[in-house]
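seq as requested:
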Amino acid sequence: MLPEEAREYLGDWYDIAGPALGITDPGDRHPDPQGVCEGLVAAVRRLARRDWPLVLLIDDAHWADQETLYWLATFAERLADLSVLVVVARRPGEISGTGARHLDAVAAAADRPVTTLSALTPDAAAGLTRATLGENADAAFCREVWAVTAGNPYETVELLAKVQDSELEPVEAHAGALRDLNRSARGGGLVARLEELGIDATRFAWAAAILGTGITVDLVARLATLRPEDAARCAERLRTARILTAPDPSATSGTQPADLEFVHPLIATAVYNSIPDALRRAMHGIAARIVTDSGRGAAAAARHLLEVHPDDDEELVWQLREAAREHLAVGAPDAARRCLERALEEPPRPEVHAHVLYELGSATFLTAPARTIGHLRTALGMPGLDGSRRVDAVIRLSQALLHNDQMEEAVRTVEAEAARLEPGPARLRLQAVQFMWEGIHAGETLSPGRSERLARLAATCTGRDNSERALLILRGFDAMMRGENAEEVVEVCDRALVNGRLAPGLGWTDSEWGVELLLMLASSYAYTDRLDRAESLFSEALHAYDTAGWGGGHLVLAHAYVGLAHRRRGRLEAAESSLRESLRLAERVGRGLPLYWTATCNLVDTLLARGHVDEAWATAERHGFTPPYPSTIVLPDPRSVRGRLLLAAGRTKEGINELEAAEKAAAARGHHHPVHVFAASDLARALATEDPARAARLAVDVRRHAERLGTDTAIGEALRVAAALETGQRAVRLAAQAVTYLEASPCQYEHAAARVEYGVLARSVPDLERGLALARSCGADGLVERARAALEAGAGLR
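struct tokens:
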């Protein structure tokens, strides 16, 4: 395709998958490897729909890199709706670890048994012999061909080619010559045959084996130090000897034109292994320079640099670091990791050693956070990592600790580094990160006076830089979780914006602060009845990650929080759709992570709001929505949701216990937001008959916290709880007040529930009909049934 055709073909994936395909230069940012993988999947899916049926052949898959195998495993899972046949061949025992797991996943995706290829039978060897040499090949000769090669297809083909070249008649009298001919096709026999072609041809073959791919006569001549005309003669001699051949046009890369390739990988391996070890390493070093000088880039040269013997070479370290940067730019962190690990073996100069470790820690961050922790800790303990890069390393280390479920260590890490610094932007940034990790920690212990210290620090911030904006966001989130006045929360959050928008450097795909901070900002708006602002931010996140190709955890959270916004707004069917997509993506990222809990918790809560109790229970069971709970904050509170689920499922005692635990945990942290942590509201309803005095006290506390927060939703919900504990006209009056508040709220499901409850208490047909219409628009099937049943009962309605 021409560049403009490729751009149109790939659409939004062009800038993401294009660099990995080699058809466009990478941008400044490191793409998310998951996004690159999804972009490549999309590219082949579009090809399969345009030119079908499509057959994709992958031979020698055991030699593929990790990124390719991950893509292959991902693509294999998506074949159900495509006219595509994927045929993968691998040699058993040649690969282990992550690569083997990817290939096992490919095999598991097959809808038919995996076939293990067997050797040729005597009859098959005879058929191949006669097809090659003619039908006059006698049975004894054919039998000896099979015996000599043990039915190995490659050796059989090579042996028959040599029989043709030697013009040997295929009769029993000549069968004894087959063993000597076969020995020359492999191992030492192949090497001896190569040496017979002369020293120049041997050097040419060695150089071709070192290059491996993209073998051109010009590059080989430079590596083997041959004159062009001598190199051309050697190439022809090796072609005649069936060691090299012209490449298959369908298998060559447009970015690496090739004149030659080895007839078979086994020949290439035999030739490569015949090169003396010291010479082989030296030739790789020369090859790296030749490949770089040819304009193929540091990443193409890296495979040679990895083979060079460590020798305290400063330039080699620089080249490997440059290759790692190129790999990261196309979404290949595993390849970058290999380059940087090899750079450490050189080793680097003392002044750059810590920087190489930092870059290695960054390369492994998305794929192996535990490994990142070790690299960054070592880097920070060495001289050379100073200024903003040291601060970056500390924050990246704290993020890795967080992802590795070492929350307290993450907090201590940034706290200790902040204490070392003088007041200024760097220290403020670290303090903000410390407050952020403490703010999302779900444990029941908090550092004394944290909220007060955060409030004092945020009070000095005007939002002049991103560190101050981060502190304002953190203060707003903390105040929201504590149930402070909503207007004040919104005022603090608004100060963190620039003209109502996210500041440059503080966007969803900016790496300096991470996604957690912006989710706190949007959640603060969501739980202060500013759903328009929350929805705008969540939708912006989803669009940003789709456009940038950021998959994995980022996309999981984006879909989950879009679902949360739909749930708060009362669009329950849309919420369920977003949350199911979030959970589908979360399954690929990994169970047990905070983002998995976020998707599951919100889906269970949404299904309960819809009245689908059995489905909510099945979802909770299937996805492990049971204690122990994650170490990070999840919105809404998972204990409260679990308690509500148990009550709905008729497990009242267990539900009450869970809600009591939720209320206790929230109180220990000072979290008194009555909508986020609704345990007290549900507990009051559950205890109405068993312990009415305690239920009444809980209802009073809920209303007090709601009035302190001051949102229509919180006050309306508190009035619904109070109404549920009363009877007669007092219950009717409280229900009417709840309707008034919730009618002004942006949360339509809660309004529908209040309208139906009031209609039942007041026996009001208009209110029941209005509640029924609202419930239908929300997709709240349980409310619909309740309203319809009350209307159909009819007795006493007005």
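Strands lie at 54-58, 84-88, 244-245, 261-262.
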